[in-house]
Design goal:
This protein is an all-alpha fold. Helices cover about 75% and strands about 0% of the residues.
């Protein structure tokens, strides 16, 4: 009996080691933050190979990278058919949710989920809030979060409004780079999003606040 248990254990460990090695080979070199930095997602063939392993893997990095690459593929290369787009968004959101269940402390991936939900016409408030509560993100990702907040129903949530002010202040600290982007975000924002941007800039940068009010 002990010999059988030992053999079974060795087989399981060998399979695990083999899957881990294979996962390292096919894992997309694409993180959630890359989605907001303008990086090009992997091609369909690499996504398909990673998806086969991701369907039964518990590797947090593999699942997160695959989900981010899948989301980027949907957002950058959407299907031309309306029904195809809907199914692609649904599949991408499912991949992101699966990754977050295994490895939830990923703020950029939570923002990815919120972005997908917003683009699909859903409510992104909970996902955006989690992107704030699970850690810090690079400034470019933080600005993308501002765009998501101000263009969606998330701008009506009082807690998110407080959290978003820090992103807006960070962008204003680099005003020479983000001024045109902030103006574009303001133009595309909802009424609540415009109000949030005006309130945040009124104290942090009154001169820029006056510029925004012209649009």
């Amino acid at each position: 009996m002990l010999r059988v248990v030992g053999i079974c254990t060795a087989i399981v460990l060998a399979l695990h080691a083999g899957m881990t090695f294979y996962g390292d080979l096919i894992r997309p070199n694409f993180r959630a933050s890359d989605l907001f930095l303008g990086e090009i997602p992997p091609d369909k063939a690499k996504l398909a190979a990673a998806g086969g392993l991701a369907s039964f893997s518990w590797d947090g990095d593999l699942l997160a990278n695959y989900a981010a690459a899948m989301a980027a593929d949907v957002l950058h290369r959407p299907s031309s058919e309306e029904g195809g787009r809907a199914s692609e968004y649904k599949a991408a959101q499912a991949a992101v949710v699966a990754a977050l269940k295994v490895s939830p402390i990923r703020p950029a991936l939570w923002l990815t989920l919120g972005t997908l939900q917003t683009q699909a016409g859903g409510v992104a408030t909970a996902a955006v809030k989690m992107s704030y509560l699970t850690g810090s993100v690079p400034l470019d990702v933080a600005f993308s979060r501002v765009q998501t907040v101000t263009s969606s129903a998330a701008a009506t949530d009082d807690e998110i409004k407080l959290l978003a002010q820090s992103d807006i202040r960070s962008a204003l600290a680099n005003r020479s780079r983000y001024e045109p982007l902030l103006i574009a975000a303001y133009v595309q924002a909802t009424a609540q999003g415009k109000s949030l941007l005006l309130e945040s800039t009124k104290v942090a940068d009154p001169k820029f606040n006056e510029i925004l009010r012209r649009y």
